[in-house]
Amino acid sequence: MRIEQLTYMEAVTRLGSLRRAAEELHISQPALSETVRNLERELGVVLLDRKRSGAKISEDGRALLPHIIGVLDAVDRLRRAADHQHHTTRMVRLGTVNAATVPLLVPAVREFREAQPGTQVEVVGTQQDDIHRALLEGSLDLGLVNYLAGDDRPPDLETTELLRCRAVVCLHPDSPLAAMDTVRVADLLTEPLIVMRSGYVMHRYVHRLLRGRPPSFSYSTDGAEMGKLMVAEGLGSTVLPAFSVLGDPLERQGALTCRPLADDDTEVLMVIQRRPSSSMPRAVRTLHDIFVTRAASHPDAVRGPAATGPASEASGPRG
Prior knowledge:
alpha/beta
């Protein structure tokens, strides 16, 4: 049985004539008649009473008509759902705090592009709270954010840990601190410090690290990428997760370097978040899985259980 057979039968019944149905369907009347006869043979019932004056639906056909229309309606709903799925997944929207851009974000987006060339990826750089809000509102599909070890996670989002590392001091190669094996907080205070703006995890981390001690001079900026550029231009040093510095093109080119912190062993985590949904668009699920798979092969990959769902504990500070 084919859908077109049911479509033809519905048209004949609705229009009350093989001729009018053939005209509407843009096929010949003999072809239409033969299609309906094939359906009758397949079902084992006579659907049309054929007379010289024309063909009308038979009593058996009238009894089966609601089922025929039900199948056609279901097919129409399926097509509309598939069309909606196609249109809503032509764009995947990803929010990021601009950490691990080179080792994780860029390779993941490149792999996704190769796997689904017809789907665009919009990358939005912003802060954790903005990403969290946009995920819940539906204006973002996925979010890459940082936490400090021990931070609570938002209970209304599904969170999967990707990377875990310690913070490092990001330096210009000509900085006196670059000659040291490790950098103490007291050393960090001797030259200008580039600090992430309030609302970023690394702002909170550095504030806690300094314990109220002011650096010689400080800048405030948005995100790791701008911070690294300022370091490369010799404006000062900054403190970032190791996965945001190691392997960066500026680090590979020698425009900046990094040293471990001697005074603190707090771990910084990168996670991917999404709304809990059993009907996540395929493109979103694909990009999510690419991030998880790529992170697993990274030197700073999270080991052991790493996923939390909407049943996690109450949310704590995120900025």
